[in-house]
Design brief:
single chain; 396 residues; alpha/beta; TIM Barrel; two-stranded antiparallel sheet
Amino acid sequence: MDEFCNYAHRGAGAYAPENTMAAFRLGLALGANGIETDIRRTKDGVLVLFHDESLLRLTGTDRKIADLTYAELLNYPIPSPDGAITDTVPTLQMFLAFAKNTETTLALELKAENIEADVLKAIAAYGLTERCFITSFSMEYLSNVKALRPHQRVGLLTDTVNEGVIAELKRIGAEQICPKAAVLTPELVRQLHEEGFNVRAWGVKDEALMRHALGCGVDGMTVNFPDKLRLLISQGGRSMKRWISDITALLAVLNLLFCMDCAVYEVKWGGLDGFIDLLPYEILFSGIAAAVFIAVTAVLTILEFRKAKAACGEEMLKLRKKEALFRMLLLAAVACAVYCVPHFCLFSLNENSDLRILERSYDMNDCRIIHGVCAALSLAAIPALAVIYGKAKKKI
């Protein structure tokens, strides 16, 4: 499977004038490794990057792109969402010249008829054929692209996915399918992968849908805020650093338990043997260790929240709170369980006359062996923890 692709939708459309060079540059600066844009043709035949059929939504002027020459189009600057900056509508040639000097994956959506041949010619001229997906809501446009260049990768944008759509995409040899994020499920994405498709989500209008699409296992998505997607990916289940920190945390808790256990055995051997049964000790140790673990993790989580808030604002912070709390509690529970179960069971078996497994008293060497087993079990627990965490966080 290809690397996950964070497509800057019309560039960083949440912050800059959409489908402009300013938006494309900002999208890459914010962490995108892909760019999605839209192609139309002007009255004088120039291929330009613009989503809507007319200028009305972005400029207030109700004139169609197809009715304007490119020179006339330059008289209508495109504003950013906050109105702070403006930029002009770029040509496809300008965009491809920029993209050639990056390692960016491109998703070029055909928004007008009879432009397929010219688009293919342009991307070939810049050596970008292999890095491009030609996309459209029109199966006819994609079929035309495949007829002109069979090896060109194409993808269908669609609101729904059914057997008819899948069959038609297979018929034309499409490589990608782009379902709306709201209709995605893990089962659907798994089915599409089994059918051989790359799956890219669109319609990711907010962070909740972004998180949902990522949890479903898509190969990429188009977002107006690539910085927020980059942060979510870097701090989510895909991060190797996260699971390394989980292993370290579990072993740290086990080590703390081991130190407390040894101290108590020294006290018991000093004359307090039999003062209290082992099970209450284990409960006490587990509770203390869990409390320490949660306290330390809470501090780290607060620092992480502050970084997230600084990078992406209040909304991203809200999305991560429940997930962070769940992860913290899950790790504490697993650490305690991994320690308590083998330790208590082995001790009980040895002290029970009917189930005795040693011909001598339980001593410190046995304690060390058992803690070694606990450490090994904690490592083995990580894959299971990853599965539980991955499934449960989708329901948070």
